[in-house]
Amino acid sequence: MMILLSLTLVSCGGKPKPPEPPPVIVQAPDYKPIGEGMKVHSYALIGVAVIIAVALISRGKNN
After folding, report:
1. Which parts of the chain span the membrane according to its record (predicted)?
2. Residue 34: its pLDDT value, please?
């Protein structure tokens, strides 16, 4: 009887397989915020260039 009881408590199968890790999804980086920042800076530089050009033109007309 003890042998049957001990056999029921012992597993005959091998070690259980570890769970598989979830699949890794490789996504492209999001460059949109960088592009938006560069666009704002380029608009600012164009604005500064226009202001300087207007100032130089108006300075030349006053003479």
Report:
1. 38-57
2. 83
